[in-house]
Design goal:
Elements (H helix, E strand, L loop, with lengths): L15 E3 L2 E3 L15 E3 L5 E3 L2 H7 L2 H17 L4 E2 L1 H10 L1 H8 L5 H8 L2 H8 L2 H4 L6 E2 L4 E2 L5 H8 L3 E3 L6 E3 L3
Parallel strand pairs: 5-7
Antiparallel strand pairs: 1-2, 3-4, 6-7, 8-9
Length: 177
């Protein structure tokens, strides 16, 4: 069947079973998915997008992320608490995933401000056993958080202030919000 010849060994099997018998497959009756396919048009002429990257490309979301991330970056810069800030800014604007994550901080500026104004507490958090592995490689000096491109995802997680302690259970974990 043209278009399905790239099935790799162990990847899958296609067949047409009608009335408990294997019947000839009509290629016109097939709809197949592979990791490259990002969407399809359904019977109602609606486009169904199956991957985030196709959605981001179709609606130019990467540009939106950068546009929203820029003022957030300026906000963070204003505290002068990030060593190697220029590298952080460059990496963020060059990477759509980082841009998106930094753009989401637009609604959390108060948390970011409190974090950047309490660098000593950031250092304490890095020493907490439950957070240590997740923030491994992040360096905090007496008054700044050092940005290192090798740990860019961990860095954004840190400045997002996701390290929390449950009020009820006293459990320490990283929040998704």
């Amino acid at each position: 069947i043209q278009g399905y010849k790239k099935f790799k060994k162990g990847f899958g099997f296609i067949g047409n079973i009608t009335n408990n018998k294997v019947e000839k497959i009509n290629p016109k009756d097939l709809l197949g998915f592979n990791p490259v396919l990002g969407g399809y048009v359904n019977e109602h002429n609606e486009i169904v997008i199956t991957t985030k990257s196709i959605f981001e490309n179709a609606f130019k979301m990467r540009e939106v992320y950068k546009a929203v991330a820029r003022p957030v970056l300026e906000f963070v810069r204003s505290f002068n608490k990030i060593e190697n800030f220029e590298n952080f800014e460059q990496d963020t604007l060059a990477n759509s995933n980082l841009s998106r994550r930094v753009a989401m901080l637009e609604n959390k500026k108060i948390r970011v401000e409190k974090l950047l104004n309490n660098i000593s507490k950031v250092q304490e958090a890095l020493n907490v056993e439950e957070y240590r592995q997740r923030f491994e490689g992040i360096i905090v000096t007496d008054d700044k958080i050092v940005y290192n491109s090798e740990y860019k995802d961990k860095f954004v997680t840190l400045i997002s202030d996701t390290a929390v302690v449950s009020f009820v259970t006293a459990e320490k974990f990283l929040s998704d919000t």
